[in-house]
Hints:
Elements: E1 2-5, H1 8-13, E2 22-25, H2 33-38, E3 46-48, H3 51-55, H4 61-79, E4 85-89, E5 118-125, E6 130-132, E7 137-139, H5 144-154, H6 160-168, E8 175-177, E9 184-185, E10 191-195, E11 207-209, E12 220-224
Amino acid sequence: MIRTVSTFEALVGTPFADGVNALCWRRSLPGDFSEVLAHLDSGEGIVPLDEERLRSLPVSNEGRAAIDFMLADLRTLRERGLSPELNCIYGYPRDNESVSLPTDVYSFHADSAPVEADTWLCTYHGAPSEGLLNAEARRRIDVPSVRAELLLGFGGTDDEAFADHLQEACHDLHYLPLPNARPYSFGVGHLWRIALDYPGSPVAPCIHRAPSTLALDPPRLLLIS
Protein backbone atom coordinates (compact mmCIF):
# COMPACT_ATOMS: atom_id res chain seq x y z
CA MET A 1 0.00 0.00 0.00
CA ILE A 2 1.25 3.48 -0.89
CA ARG A 3 1.34 6.55 1.31
CA THR A 4 2.14 10.04 0.02
CA VAL A 5 4.14 12.46 2.17
CA SER A 6 4.87 16.16 1.72
CA THR A 7 8.41 16.52 3.13
CA PHE A 8 11.71 14.69 3.12
CA GLU A 9 11.56 14.42 6.91
CA ALA A 10 8.25 12.57 6.62
CA LEU A 11 9.71 10.32 3.95
CA VAL A 12 12.52 9.37 6.33
CA GLY A 13 10.52 9.22 9.54
CA THR A 14 7.30 7.48 8.54
CA PRO A 15 7.53 3.82 9.55
CA PHE A 16 6.39 1.00 7.33
CA ALA A 17 3.36 -0.41 9.15
CA ASP A 18 -0.29 -1.40 8.68
CA GLY A 19 0.38 -2.66 5.18
CA VAL A 20 2.09 0.54 3.97
CA ASN A 21 5.26 -0.56 2.17
CA ALA A 22 5.85 2.35 -0.23
CA LEU A 23 6.26 6.04 0.62
CA CYS A 24 6.28 8.73 -2.05
CA TRP A 25 7.34 12.37 -1.77
CA ARG A 26 5.74 13.99 -4.81
CA ARG A 27 7.76 16.79 -6.39
CA SER A 28 7.85 18.98 -9.49
CA LEU A 29 11.19 18.95 -11.26
CA PRO A 30 13.06 22.20 -12.02
CA GLY A 31 15.27 22.74 -15.04
CA ASP A 32 15.88 20.87 -18.27
CA PHE A 33 16.90 17.25 -17.79
CA SER A 34 16.69 16.55 -21.52
CA GLU A 35 19.48 19.06 -22.06
CA VAL A 36 21.64 17.25 -19.53
CA LEU A 37 21.15 14.01 -21.43
CA ALA A 38 21.91 15.72 -24.73
CA HIS A 39 25.37 16.63 -23.45
CA LEU A 40 26.18 13.14 -22.23
CA ASP A 41 27.97 10.81 -24.61
CA SER A 42 25.88 7.96 -25.97
CA GLY A 43 26.46 4.68 -24.22
CA GLU A 44 25.01 1.35 -23.25
CA GLY A 45 24.09 -0.43 -20.07
CA ILE A 46 24.35 1.53 -16.83
CA VAL A 47 26.65 4.58 -16.82
CA PRO A 48 27.43 6.12 -13.39
CA LEU A 49 27.35 9.91 -13.20
CA ASP A 50 29.46 11.76 -10.64
CA GLU A 51 29.44 15.39 -9.62
CA GLU A 52 32.62 16.27 -11.51
CA ARG A 53 31.25 15.03 -14.80
CA LEU A 54 27.88 16.71 -14.36
CA ARG A 55 29.46 20.03 -13.34
CA SER A 56 31.63 19.97 -16.47
CA LEU A 57 28.70 19.79 -18.90
CA PRO A 58 28.25 22.99 -20.98
CA VAL A 59 24.56 23.43 -20.19
CA SER A 60 22.30 26.46 -19.94
CA ASN A 61 20.87 27.79 -16.69
CA GLU A 62 17.94 25.38 -17.10
CA GLY A 63 20.30 22.45 -17.47
CA ARG A 64 22.31 23.68 -14.49
CA ALA A 65 19.14 23.78 -12.38
CA ALA A 66 18.46 20.14 -13.26
CA ILE A 67 22.00 19.14 -12.31
CA ASP A 68 21.82 21.05 -9.03
CA PHE A 69 18.58 19.28 -8.16
CA MET A 70 20.04 15.80 -8.71
CA LEU A 71 23.22 16.60 -6.80
CA ALA A 72 21.19 18.03 -3.92
CA ASP A 73 19.32 14.72 -3.66
CA LEU A 74 22.63 12.85 -3.60
CA ARG A 75 23.97 15.04 -0.79
CA THR A 76 20.75 14.75 1.22
CA LEU A 77 20.75 10.97 1.13
CA ARG A 78 24.48 10.75 1.88
CA GLU A 79 23.97 12.96 4.93
CA ARG A 80 21.52 10.28 6.13
CA GLY A 81 24.26 7.67 5.91
CA LEU A 82 23.02 6.16 2.63
CA SER A 83 25.05 5.37 -0.49
CA PRO A 84 22.99 6.68 -3.41
CA GLU A 85 24.04 6.37 -7.03
CA LEU A 86 23.06 8.53 -9.97
CA ASN A 87 23.01 6.59 -13.23
CA CYS A 88 22.24 7.15 -16.87
CA ILE A 89 20.53 3.91 -17.85
CA TYR A 90 20.47 2.86 -21.49
CA GLY A 91 19.34 -0.64 -20.54
CA TYR A 92 19.69 -3.33 -17.89
CA PRO A 93 21.15 -6.80 -18.44
CA ARG A 94 18.54 -9.29 -19.61
CA ASP A 95 18.17 -12.77 -18.18
CA ASN A 96 18.73 -14.78 -21.34
CA GLU A 97 19.08 -18.08 -19.52
CA SER A 98 15.41 -18.22 -18.53
CA VAL A 99 13.30 -16.84 -21.33
CA SER A 100 9.97 -17.89 -19.85
CA LEU A 101 10.84 -17.11 -16.20
CA PRO A 102 13.42 -14.29 -16.19
CA THR A 103 14.85 -12.93 -12.96
CA ASP A 104 16.07 -9.57 -14.25
CA VAL A 105 14.79 -6.17 -13.10
CA TYR A 106 12.23 -6.02 -15.92
CA SER A 107 10.27 -8.70 -14.06
CA PHE A 108 8.08 -7.70 -11.11
CA HIS A 109 10.24 -8.38 -8.06
CA ALA A 110 11.04 -7.41 -4.50
CA ASP A 111 14.45 -6.27 -3.28
CA SER A 112 15.94 -8.20 -0.38
CA ALA A 113 18.58 -7.73 2.31
CA PRO A 114 19.94 -9.77 5.25
CA VAL A 115 19.27 -6.85 7.65
CA GLU A 116 16.76 -4.02 7.90
CA ALA A 117 17.08 -1.73 4.87
CA ASP A 118 15.04 0.32 2.39
CA THR A 119 15.36 1.11 -1.30
CA TRP A 120 15.28 4.77 -2.36
CA LEU A 121 14.76 5.80 -5.96
CA CYS A 122 13.79 8.68 -8.21
CA THR A 123 13.49 8.85 -11.99
CA TYR A 124 14.43 12.31 -13.28
CA HIS A 125 14.08 11.56 -16.98
CA GLY A 126 12.78 8.71 -19.09
CA ALA A 127 10.28 5.98 -18.32
CA PRO A 128 9.70 5.57 -14.56
CA SER A 129 9.61 2.38 -12.53
CA GLU A 130 6.34 0.52 -12.06
CA GLY A 131 4.83 -0.94 -8.90
CA LEU A 132 2.29 -3.64 -8.19
CA LEU A 133 0.10 -3.85 -5.10
CA ASN A 134 0.76 -7.00 -3.09
CA ALA A 135 -2.95 -7.87 -3.20
CA GLU A 136 -2.73 -7.90 -6.99
CA ALA A 137 0.32 -10.17 -7.22
CA ARG A 138 1.32 -13.77 -6.63
CA ARG A 139 4.80 -15.18 -6.15
CA ARG A 140 5.75 -17.04 -9.28
CA ILE A 141 6.93 -20.07 -7.33
CA ASP A 142 3.44 -20.38 -5.82
CA VAL A 143 1.84 -20.84 -9.25
CA PRO A 144 1.64 -24.63 -9.79
CA SER A 145 2.50 -24.53 -13.51
CA VAL A 146 5.47 -22.23 -12.90
CA ARG A 147 6.73 -24.31 -10.01
CA ALA A 148 6.47 -27.44 -12.14
CA GLU A 149 8.53 -25.79 -14.90
CA LEU A 150 11.19 -24.72 -12.41
CA LEU A 151 11.24 -28.18 -10.86
CA LEU A 152 11.70 -29.73 -14.29
CA GLY A 153 14.69 -27.49 -14.91
CA PHE A 154 16.08 -28.30 -11.47
CA GLY A 155 15.93 -32.00 -12.19
CA GLY A 156 15.09 -33.16 -8.69
CA THR A 157 12.21 -33.38 -6.24
CA ASP A 158 10.23 -30.63 -4.53
CA ASP A 159 12.21 -30.74 -1.29
CA GLU A 160 14.50 -28.55 0.81
CA ALA A 161 17.21 -28.63 -1.84
CA PHE A 162 14.75 -27.32 -4.41
CA ALA A 163 13.64 -24.57 -2.01
CA ASP A 164 17.30 -23.57 -1.55
CA HIS A 165 17.73 -23.53 -5.32
CA LEU A 166 14.74 -21.22 -5.76
CA GLN A 167 16.14 -18.84 -3.17
CA GLU A 168 19.66 -18.86 -4.59
CA ALA A 169 18.29 -18.13 -8.07
CA CYS A 170 16.02 -15.35 -6.65
CA HIS A 171 12.90 -17.02 -8.05
CA ASP A 172 11.24 -16.53 -4.66
CA LEU A 173 11.49 -12.74 -5.12
CA HIS A 174 9.64 -12.54 -8.43
CA TYR A 175 5.91 -12.07 -8.91
CA LEU A 176 3.19 -12.33 -11.51
CA PRO A 177 0.25 -9.91 -11.74
CA LEU A 178 -3.13 -11.41 -10.96
CA PRO A 179 -5.88 -11.08 -13.57
CA ASN A 180 -7.18 -7.49 -13.66
CA ALA A 181 -4.13 -6.20 -11.75
CA ARG A 182 -3.35 -2.55 -12.42
CA PRO A 183 0.36 -1.68 -12.08
CA TYR A 184 1.04 1.89 -10.98
CA SER A 185 3.73 4.31 -12.11
CA PHE A 186 6.36 5.75 -9.79
CA GLY A 187 6.21 8.89 -11.93
CA VAL A 188 9.00 11.32 -12.80
CA GLY A 189 10.63 13.51 -10.17
CA HIS A 190 9.09 11.85 -7.13
CA LEU A 191 11.39 10.43 -4.46
CA TRP A 192 10.35 7.00 -3.20
CA ARG A 193 11.29 4.89 -0.20
CA ILE A 194 10.12 1.29 -0.53
CA ALA A 195 10.20 -1.74 1.75
CA LEU A 196 12.51 -4.70 1.19
CA ASP A 197 12.23 -8.37 2.04
CA TYR A 198 14.38 -8.86 5.15
CA PRO A 199 14.08 -10.99 8.32
CA GLY A 200 11.56 -9.46 10.70
CA SER A 201 10.14 -6.87 8.30
CA PRO A 202 6.80 -5.55 9.60
CA VAL A 203 5.33 -5.36 6.09
CA ALA A 204 5.48 -7.27 2.84
CA PRO A 205 8.10 -5.97 0.40
CA CYS A 206 7.16 -3.47 -2.29
CA ILE A 207 6.80 -5.21 -5.66
CA HIS A 208 8.21 -3.21 -8.57
CA ARG A 209 10.07 -3.44 -11.86
CA ALA A 210 12.10 -1.39 -14.31
CA PRO A 211 10.10 -0.16 -17.30
CA SER A 212 10.39 -2.04 -20.56
CA THR A 213 12.28 0.13 -23.00
CA LEU A 214 12.79 0.00 -26.75
CA ALA A 215 15.95 0.74 -28.68
CA LEU A 216 14.85 4.28 -29.61
CA ASP A 217 13.51 5.20 -26.16
CA PRO A 218 15.49 7.92 -24.32
CA PRO A 219 17.78 6.76 -21.53
CA ARG A 220 16.73 7.13 -17.92
CA LEU A 221 18.30 9.36 -15.31
CA LEU A 222 17.84 7.40 -12.09
CA LEU A 223 18.81 7.91 -8.49
CA ILE A 224 18.91 4.70 -6.46
CA SER A 225 20.15 3.69 -3.04
